[in-house]
Write a structure and sequence with these properties.
Layout: E1 9-10, E2 24-28, E3 32-33, H1 36-39, H2 53-62, H3 70-80, H4 87-94, E4 97-101, E5 107-108, H5 117-122, H6 124-134, E6 138-142, H7 144-149, E7 171-174, E8 179-185, H8 197-207
Parallel strand pairs: 2-4, 2-6, 3-5, 6-8
Antiparallel strand pairs: 1-4, 7-8
Amino acid sequence: MDSVMFFPWIGNEYEKGGIFGKKILILGEAHYCETPDDCGACRPGERNDCNAMTEQVIKDQISDSGKKHAIFTKLAKLFLDKDSLSEADKNDFWNSVSYYNYVQTSVSDKARVAPNSEMWSISEIPFNEVMEELEPDFLLILGFRLWENMAGQEGVDWPVGPVICNDHKTWYYKGKRKRTLSLIIYHPSSFTFSYDYIPIVKHAISLS
């Protein structure tokens, strides 16, 4: 993963499939920083302390003292189909999956701006490297803005997969050695997100 800036979180049981019996990669959009332009350290392939940012964010969700984020709690509840989570639930979930942010430069959080076209463009190669390294069975893409800006043409670079419950479409990521069933849902931070996705995600995992 030579081109990757923010290394993916990889759970201890990911390779074995963890509690799901499948290798699952959750794909977020981006990290946000107060002054990314002033830092100058945020570039794909750069090696510095920020490489572990994604890993640290997920570690914080498991630890007693780490900073918690609502989107990660929602994700765990979504996959586990639970209204509340114990510490054991959090550990089991995050050690079963991997997590990666597609955009490989930080975005300014001053106005919660969207990644620009260059940020999307330079993130294609790192994403492909992560997919080839991790070879997930199932890819959950968080947010339609992310999906619409990822590289590749629907139906060509991303072949159409099976239609699952509630008429949700799926797609396949075409890797060099395997295809990965992929599902897009509304981002957990959006008002359109719903736990109605629980059976949809379960079904997709079963097909992967």
